[in-house]
Amino acid sequence: MDETERIATSPSSKGRETSEFLMRIVRTLSHSADFEQREKEKARIDKAYKQSDKKLGELVTAHYEDLTKVTQDFSRMSKCINDSRERITKIREDLSSCKTLLHCKRDELRRLWIEGVEHKAMVALLDQVELIKEVPVKLDNFIISKHYLHATDLLVNAVAKLEKPLAGIDALRDLKAELIARNEQLHETLIEELNKQIYAAVPDQSVSLKRSSSYRRGSNLTKQLSDPECKQTKPTELLKPPEMMDLNKEIKEDLNGNPEENPAHFIAVLVEALFVLRKIPDSAEGIKSKIEPELSAIVARTSQQVVDSYAQQGESLSSQNQPRFLLELLENVFHQFRNVARMHKIVLRNLQRIIPTPEETVDEVSGVPVRNELLYDMNDVWSKIQAVLELVLREYLDVQTSSRQRAPTSFDEPSTDINSYFSKKKPTKSKKISLFRFDASIHAMSTNSYVDDNMTFDTGNLFHVNLLSEVGLGKHQMEMCKPSVNNITAIFMPLEAFIKEVEDAVACQDGTSSLQSFVTEFIQNIFLGQVHATVSSSIAAATKVDEEDGSFDALRHVVDHKTQKDLGVTRPLLTSTVTVDRNIRKLQELMQSLPTYGDQFLNMICNILKEYRDTCNSAYRGIVQIESDEKRVISATWAKDEDISRFLRSLPSWRSLQMSERQDLSKKLCSEEEIRTLNSKEALILISNLSSEAIIPQQEIITDVTQMRTIANVHESLEWFAGRLRQFCELLSARSPNSMNSIELSTREYPPVSDKSLESLKMLVKDFQDLAEICLLLLHLEVRVHCFYFLLPVAKQSNYAGPIDDLDPDSNVLKLNKDLSAMEEMLVQSLQPQKFKYIFESLGFLVSSILMSSIQYLKKINENGIKKMCRNLFAIQQNLTNITMARETDLDHARQYYELLYMNPDDVLSLIVEKGPDYSYTEYVSLFQLYQKSHPHIKPANLDTLLHKLEEVMNKTQNGSST
After folding, report:
1. What is the sign of the dihedral through the CA atoms of 610, 613, 614 and 615?
2. For the chain, how long is the longest CA-to-CA vector?
3. How far apart are CA 300 and CA 468, in angstroms?
4. What is the distance between the alpha carbons of residues 107 and 667, in angstroms, rounded to a whole number?
5. pLDDT tens-digit profile of 800-812?
6. Which residue from 323, 278, 274, 687 is spatially nearest to 488, judged by alpha carbons?
7. Which residues face 361 on adjacent strands?
8. Are 889 and 727 a contacting pair, CB within 8 Å?
9. Distance CA 823, CA 444 (A)
10. Integer angstrom CA distances of residue 175 from 127, 134, 142, 162
11. What is the 3-class SS of 384-408, one letter each residue?
12. Which DSSP symbol is given to 176?
């Protein structure tokens, strides 16, 4: 396309561009010198115009209707414009004439305008009067729907209008008085609603009455506890923490929503409404005065619900005497008190939002600036909560009765002396019987009535009366359990946790809250003293002294079979030990229930253990001590001897006894030959400790077999007791701050205790274990001393060279058998099998050693004497076999020794050469010497020769065996 066509087809060539196009054509035609060129250009332009005309004709034909419509519209618009011009000209002329006319009527118009303004004002007043008349109805509707902020704004604005714009209308005077009265009523309603939100709405229901199904009753108790009218409670998520509230956010009220859906916002609305009423100081004072009564009402309602939910029909909770009901009550009360404090915090935050900075006003009387602060704070709330809880605790802990029966408080000191409970008491004098009393006299009855009336005004009773008056129940129906100082054990841990919350929330001056001070004073001055008195009296009754003979009943009585089975023991235990153990267990439970006072209870345990240890030692001395002298029975002296005691404890029999306690019997300690050697050493030590000339006096042995049973009972009891105490020590050691042990503890752990108290307890455990072991060693030695007592006279006092063959054993042997049987009958019931075995084990070896060593005391012996001695050995062997249920081969060895007397010394030497020596050189020497004394025809020179041959044979035999 050339330039002419491009310009012709360009959409912008309709104005200035078209003119330029024509000018260029003119210039081209005028400046061209060639005629042909001009003709060509002219022809080209004609052709272009023809094409344009043709195209224009086509467009007009295609858009003919539109072109016609546009032309008609343009004509109509042009006509309207002309008509408008004519009307404007006419209006202008009319305005000019009106202006002229108004200028002439100016005064009359001003008068009419003023009258119109007055009529409008009157209409507005009438409208306000109509609105004021509707205020009571609207106010009632707002109050019913609990839109208190709208109600307050409506009431305040109405009263303001009645006092200023509408003050002169007499017809509204009654309405004004009514609205002013409604103002006060609304204030009371707001306060009542605010208190209801604080005290009745408990948002979290998860804590209420979470107990096992074995004693759970009343599934609706949680809902009833939250609201006395059983209304729907508020969800926790709607209650925003006070610290998260936006104090700068404007409080608005939605007329289309439920005001109580969000308690925090509802409280803010109530406080805002009180502020609008200008009742903040009065409201704060009213809220503060209602704290304690409302808290008391919460306790009363909760008590009623617990009673209704758990008490069986016709049976009160107090008769069941279960502190868990009190714990249930307190846990629910704690939960509700926490929410009460939370609500008060929300109220105070809203008050701070309304009154961010206290203002100062001038006192009209004194002229001194007065600082207007909030009339209460969270310290007041927590103080009232503590006061109400203290009253509840005073009632259920029986503080008044217990304080009048307060025991001494020096019990937990390590130096406490409670010997009065364990020492021998003098016979008490019989009490004088009163001939008559004045309890039923008129004077006494009137006096008691006066005292009862005065006690009604006691703080605790007055508190209970106030609570019961709200729910309409009697005092005996409201008690969760019987008042007792022991109730503190069930509630101490939750109570301490709640007190910790209180102390964290309240900045105490001395770091201790008033409730904590009360609990501490109660435990230290009343509870611990009563526990000490109860435990001491229980132990005193179990360890009392018989007033007739001065003996200890503590070592005389054992528990019955049922108690023995319950304890899981197979042998009888002393009643005194079981009583002490039970009291110790109670104190251990108290250590778990009251961990803060763990050291005090541990000191109490140590003091009780010290006194019982002294009691057992005194009773032990009363058995083994001869009359009032320091001299003791032989077995007790040996048991106390360090060398003998250490040797006996090193024997395999003792070590196997200790291993059996640990259930480790897989290892064999010694061979039979080593055991025989050690038994021989034990016999030699015991024989060497007795005089070879004198007979043992009867007072130096325990002749009363029942005393041996008592010693056995003491051993079993103290060993069992020491084992339980040892477990207790291990648990305490695991809780010690310096302990690295990883012992698995029980469900309820013991609190950490001081190292000094723990070491003292461990020493006491060792003392009980030592005394138990001494008792067992005493029995072991006493049986052997009895053997010495009866067998030494067998050789020293009896005749074994008589002419008549006596078919009966020696009388002392018969007495020994009877004595051993009696001891066996007593000890088998009191000692465990392995300990019974330890008492009588290797006794045959000792008897054979005694009778073989006693050969030196025989003056002479014949065949009848030899038979008698063999009968003695056989009788003892038979008795010991019945006791130990094992053949005593050592007695066969002794019998064979005496049977060598049937042979002459030469035959004995030949037997030694042939079979080897069965006895020691000293035993053969004693045998030959008795044979020489029994056969006078053998001269002393021949005896020396025989002894010389014996020595050669023994040396030769020993050398041969060594090679």
Report:
1. positive
2. 204
3. 7
4. 139
5. 888 887 778 889 9
6. 323
7. 370
8. no
9. 64
10. 16, 10, 18, 9
11. HHHHHHHHHHHHHCCHHHHHHCCCC
12. H
What does the pLDDT read at residue 655? 81
CB atoms within 10 A of CB 525: 16
User: In this structure, are residues 393 and 510 in contact, taking their beta carbons and an 8 Å threshold?
Assistant: no
Angle between helices 755-797 and 705-735 (to 10 degrees): 160
CA-based nearest residue to 224, from 478, 477, 471: 471
Cβ contact 854:792 at 8 Å? yes
- 562, 575 Cβ separation under 8 angstroms: no
Note the residue count of the chain: 963
Structure tokens at 135: 């205020």
Structure tokens belonging to residue 936: 């006078």
Confidence of residue 608 (pLDDT cuts 50, 70, 90): very high
What is the CB-side half-sphere exposure of residue 744 using CA atoms within 13 A? Answer: 0
Q: Concatenate the DSSP letters of all residues of 467-520 into one string.
A: HHHHHT--HHHH-SS---GGGHHHHHHHHHHHHHHHHHHS--SSS--HHHHHHH
Among 180, 177, 190, residue whose Cα is nearest residue 150: 190
Task: Give the Cα separation of 215 and 328 in Å (integer).
Answer: 12
CA dist., res. 144 & res. 466, Å (int): 31
| C-alpha to C-alpha distance for 283 and 187, rounded to whole angstroms | 8
Nearest to 476, CA basis, from 590, 315, 600, 335: 315
Burial class from Cβ neighbours inside 10 Å (0-12, 13-18, 19+) for residue 501 reads middle
Q: Quickly tell me which residue has 């010690």 as its tokens.
A: 736
Give percent above pLDDT 70 in the chain. Answer: 75
Which amino acid is it at 903? Answer: M
pLDDT at 432: 43
For the stretch 370-428, pLDDT in tens is 444 557 888 899 999 999 999 999 988 888 766 665 544 444 554 444 343 334 444 44
Amino acid, single-letter form, for residue 307? V
8 A C-beta contact, residue 478 and residue 464: yes
Which amino acid is located at 567 in the chain? L
Token digits of residue 109: 């118009």
End-to-end CA distance of the chain: 148
Torsion from C-alpha of 310, 311, 316, 322, nearest 10 degrees: -30
Distance of alpha carbon 654 from alpha carbon 645, whole angstroms: 11
User: Within 13 A of 549's CA, how many CA atoms are on the CB side?
Assistant: 5
> Which amino acid is it at 189?
T
Could you read off the pLDDT of 715-725 as tens digits, one per residue? 999 999 999 99
The model carries a pTM of 0.71
Both tokens assigned to 537: 């009296």
Query: How far apart are alpha carbons 871 and 806 in whole angstroms?
Result: 10
DSSP letter at 238 equals: G
Other Cβ atoms less than 10 A from the Cβ of 786: the count is: 23
> Distance between CA atoms of 278 and 781, rounded to whole angstroms?
97
- C-beta separation of 526 from 518 below 8 A: no
Tokens 């006060």 sit on residue: 184
Residues 907-926 pLDDT 10s? 989 998 888 888 888 889 99
Q: Cα separation of 744 and 742, whole Å?
A: 6
